[in-house]
Design a protein that fits this description.
Two copies of one chain form a homodimer. Chain A contains six helices and two strands, in the order ααααββαα. Chain A has 143 residues and is mainly α. Chain A binds a DNA duplex (30 and 30 nucleotides) through residues 34-36, 51-53, 61-69, 71, 87-91. Chains A, B: Residues 1-138 form the HTH marR-type domain.
Chain lengths: 143, 143
DNA sequence: TGATTTTGTTATCAAATGATAAGTAATGGG
DNA sequence: CCCATTACTTATCATTTGATAACAAAATCA
């Protein structure tokens, strides 16, 4: 297989990933937040504590807009801002108790759908999947 | 590795896929269309000919909004609508010449970045990647 | 110390997107 | 033929998101 063919295979693959991700995550999030706010919360969940700049960089949202959305999340009591004692310009952000509860529910919903998707996989299949994830993560979807 | 750990590995993996996809595709699209319009064009490109209902279903956009966006694409001469001779309610949609040119350019841009990403991969790496893509596509990200 | 950079905020505006109601035209089933 | 359904359209409105300018405070650097 030449590199061009690999490219097309990869395009088709990423399309599948996006489709399945959508399938697993749709309606998993609370109605009280917008899609962008959810993606910010998701990022905070897996990377906390993070700064506003981290969110802005990683989610590709401008600083003013990041500030606005984070403020809204803060007003909804889903996150907490903690000032850095070293550098007082910085603010570390992490989930509040309420935020944790909300994200736990969302993740539980997604996970149950995920488990459902792999319920028919054999032990060998699961091992294959795990190996494949590792290979792609290190060789193709690396940072 | 238990299924729960596999779930988290998978979450982390899909996050990487989304990040890399964004990296490869950013600014690849023409400025004359919106992100949603681009995703519609992308879908048409790989699945043409498609009906409005197909687009609506697969892209998760309501029919009225799909109709509006497709109309805009049509006004920009990027697509063509062809009435079905069997069922005159249906319209098959495909890229116009201009639309093909635009999508070829966009895909070329994405592909060059992709090739750049795998330029240091050995022959064995590429084979590993291909196998891994196949495994995940059939065992995890299947329809 | 004074200038510059970094980190974040506020305000404002335009554009993109989502949601809904109401409608047309063609099809198909009884 | 009549009625329900399907495929799509038009119009309208609210919300979300993106972009920009102008600002403040703290840190860093020369």
């Amino acid at each position: 297989m030449d590199k061009k063919a690999l490219f097309f295979k990869c395009v088709s693959f990423t399309t599948s990933v996006h489709r399945v991700t959508h399938e697993l995550t749709q309606n998993a999030k609370s109605d009280s937040i917008t899609p962008v706010q959810y993606s910010i919360l998701e990022y905070i969940t897996v990377s906390q504590p993070v700064t506003l700049s981290d969110i802005s960089d990683c989610q590709h949202i401008s600083m003013p807009n990041t500030s606005r959305e984070v403020k809204k999340l803060s007003e909804k009591n889903l996150i907490e801002k903690i000032s850095d004692t070293e550098d007082r310009r910085k603010q570390y952000i992490r989930l509040s108790k309420d935020g944790e509860i909300m994200m736990n529910e969302a993740f539980a919903c997604v996970e149950s759908r995920f488990q459902n998707r792999i319920q028919n996989a054999s032990k060998e299949d699961l091992e294959d999947i795990e190996r494949a994830l590792d290979i792609l993560q290190t060789k193709l979807f690396y940072k």
